[in-house]
Specification:
The protein has 8 helices and 7 strands. The protein is an alpha/beta fold and 237 residues long. The chain has a single domain, classed as Rossmann fold. A 7-stranded mixed sheet has the order 3-2-1-4-5-7-6, with helices on both faces. The chain starts with a helix and ends in a 12-residue tail after the last helix.
Length: 237
């Protein structure tokens, strides 16, 4: 049943992407504000599967210093606050398209306080660069290749030279998103964990940006050349 619902979900958002970038932005803004009419609509702060996925994601990170961290598609900030607790000396930012979700994310909680900003990753990259960028359960909302190319180019542009980009998406669909990332910039995959031990398999794919200043311009050129990603980039755990 879950797979059937997922398929219907993907079909809906693929259809929405046909109206163009600006129209899609308005609809997604409305859609996620509507979902967030009540707190934590997907149970991200309490669901056992989500908590397991958060812990699994953090386990894949190399042990290093991360001065600036970005969580793209943060919703009400459940994972963003977890990042702030795990890296208390880092400057942690959560970004989302829904203003209603961000208003709840800004509610004070014990511990380090992240900051939260509104962002549509399709229309614009973040204003700054970060040592660690997360994008989880987001890319399948974007539908068409054009939007995916733009979003992935903006994600990779947000990563500081030598920084990490972490994708977390359902498996094996994650393979398709990885192909866009690998075409968007000079990045290399440093690790990938595929979790099959749940009824909803997912992949955590970690990429490292090249430590060169000119990689972003090359990345945007590569993004424009990618029409249909054909490579399978995922591999088993």
């Amino acid at each position: 049943m879950h797979r059937v619902l997922d398929r219907c979900h993907r079909t809906l958002f693929a259809a929405l992407s046909l109206i163009g970038v600006r129209g899609q932005e308005r609809l997604l803004h409305w859609y996620f504000d509507w979902w967030h009419r009540r707190p934590d609509p997907w149970g991200l702060a309490v669901d056992e599967y989500e908590q397991f996925k958060y812990a699994t994601t953090l386990e894949q990170l190399p042990a290093r210093h991360y001065g600036r961290i970005l969580d793209v598609g943060c919703s009400e900030g459940a994972f963003t606050h977890r990042l702030a607790a795990a890296y208390p000396h880092a400057d942690v930012t959560g970004a989302d398209i829904s203003e209603r979700a961000l208003a709840r994310a800004r509610t004070p909680v014990p511990g380090p306080a992240p900051r939260f900003v509104r962002l549509n990753i399709v229309t614009a990259p973040p204003a700054d660069r970060f040592d660690l960028v997360f994008c989880a359960e987001l890319l399948y909302y974007l539908g068409r290749p054009r939007q995916l190319r733009r979003a992935c180019a903006h994600l990779t542009a947000a990563v500081a030279p030598g920084g990490l980009l972490v994708l977390v998406h359902p498996w094996p669909e994650a393979r398709r998103f990885c192909a866009y990332i690998e075409a968007a910039a000079d990045v290399r995959r440093v690790t990938e964990h595929v979790e099959r031990g749940t009824g909803r398999p997912f992949a955590v794919s970690v990429y490292e940006a090249a430590a060169t200043a000119g990689r972003h311009a090359a990345g945007h050129r590569a993004a424009g050349r990618l029409a249909r990603p054909g490579r399978q980039t995922g591999r088993g755990a």
